[in-house]
Amino acid sequence: MTTTLIRGRLLSFHRAPMSIDDSAAYSYESDGALLVAGGQIVASGAYAAVKAGAPQDVAEIDHRPHLIVPGFIDTHLHFPQMQVMASYAANLLEWLNTYTFPEECRFVESAHAERIATRFFDEMVRHGTTTATAYCSVHKTSADAFFAEALRRDMRMIAGKVMMDRNAPQGLLDTPEMSNDETRAVIRDWHGKGRNHVAITPRFAITSTPEQMEVAKSLVREFPDLHVQTHLSENRDEIAFTCELYPEAKDYTDVYARYGLLGPKSLFGHCIHLSEREADVMSETGSVAVFCPTSNLFLGSGLFPLRALSRRDRPVRTSVASDIGGGTSYSMLKTLDEAYKILQLQGERLNPFDSFFMMTRGNAEALSLADKIGTLEAGTDADFIVLDMAATPAMALRAEVVNSLSDELFLLQTMGDDRSIVETYVAGKPAKSALAAA
Ligand code: GUN
Ligand code: ZN
Q1: Spatial distance between the Cα atoms of 160 and 230, rounded to a whole number of angstroms
Q2: Which of 75, 92, 233, 301 to mutate to test the pocket of ligand 1 (most atoms within 8 A of CB)?
Q3: Closest CA to 135 of 204, 181, 222
Q4: Backbone dihedral region of 10: left (phi > 0), alpha (psi from -120 to 50 degrees) or beta?
Q5: Which of 231, 235, 238 to mutate to test the pocket of ligand 1 (most atoms within 8 A of CB)?
Q6: Cβ of 95 less than 6 Å from ligand 1
Q7: Residue 49: other Cβ atoms inside 10 A
Q8: 78 lines ligand 1 (CB under 6 A)
Q9: What string of pLDDT tens digits covers the 438 residues of the chain?
């Protein structure tokens, strides 16, 4: 087994920072190292100490003066929407009907799904995202293409075949029975293979009949360890239409509650317009509200109330995500840059330690995977990235006057993108430079 020593400045979080001065929330090593073997971080800490415990002939990679952080985690995106990004629409429902649904129809073709899956993973690696929670299309072919590529690259990925049986073009509809059979087939074929996780994925209440929601309910009962993902309370017209379709429900959240879809492994994209009652139910069930800043701005959906949700007496768990292709960037740095601005517009602050916590350990906790990803702790997956705060001439000029770690993180978040990702390590192997070399 090859053992590698990777040297650089290390930053890894233990918990959410309570303020910009809360240095107990993280570990920072100004001359640190990771010892990597068998795809895992074996040791982590000060360079001298880690080197002393390493084999004599260990191969060493020196990334100084750059910063090493855990690989970014994106908790909500749509892999079949790479060619939907940057589509000109007035709002969510117009965007879905005009661009998104027609494009997703193409994923019935394996060749197309495979081509886009390859490009998708290339972009993840280029942008420093080592784990993502993805929607495939309704077609099993799309899930097969996605998981096969994740397995080939040995990446930890969560994804699901979308379940949808109404209010979309014929080429994008399954039936309750098909969604049951195909979701089970995807679980059988891919869950636990390599680092693949399958998520039960009813798209949203508008595109599922009550019969299909019953199927989702029974799948969640039968596979309680699996993640569940759907959309909730993104847009006012979407909410009104949902309430028309499910008149017996108290509100949008209650639709999902009635079908047993809330819980600590459940991720709800958007949650912008929840009532207090809905937020209480989210809190009681440990469900996660997923903040998708670039998408929410692009589609004009609204301002996610991050602080209002997380500071209530009954707090709601949150995570952050790109929501490609409603989102406008693969970069989690850009995503957090827009998150910052959304909080500014609500008179709230998002300090740079908060942002880096959210992209790493915070999102890992939201996925109940913090024992495997999201930190640089020994015993976790060796998925980490190397960041350069002077990646462009404009950043280099600004970096001349940076004199603290928080300044550096804020510069990376505000001006950085894929060019700031010097290297992306996946299971201990340099994957970004391998792309360039291929
Ligand atoms: N709601 C249902 N489907 C989608 C989707 O693909 N993107 C977004 N942003 N919202 C949705
Ligand atoms: Zn989405």
Answers
A1: 10
A2: 92
A3: 204
A4: beta
A5: 231
A6: no
A7: 14
A8: yes
A9: 799 999 999 999 999 999 999 999 999 999 999 999 999 999 999 999 999 999 999 999 999 999 999 999 999 999 999 999 999 999 999 999 999 999 999 999 999 999 999 999 999 999 999 999 999 999 999 999 999 999 999 999 999 999 999 999 999 999 999 999 999 999 999 999 999 999 999 999 999 999 999 999 999 999 999 999 999 999 999 999 999 999 999 999 999 999 999 999 999 999 999 999 999 999 999 999 999 999 999 999 999 999 999 999 999 999 999 999 999 999 999 999 999 999 999 999 999 999 999 999 999 999 999 999 999 999 999 999 999 999 999 999 999 999 999 999 999 999 999 999 999 999 999 999 999 888
CA of 195 to the centre of ligand 1 (A): 26
**Does ligand 1 have an atom closer than 6 angstroms to the CB of 103?**
no
Q: Terminus-to-terminus CA distance in the chain, angstroms?
A: 24
Query: How many residues are there in the chain?
Result: 438
Q: From the CB of residue 211, how many other CB atoms can be counted at a distance below 10 Å?
A: 13
Q: At which residue do the structure tokens 């060493």 appear?
A: 60
- State the closest ligand 1 atom to the C-alpha of 81, by its place in the atom list counted from 1: 6
* Nearest bound ligand to the CA of residue 297: 1
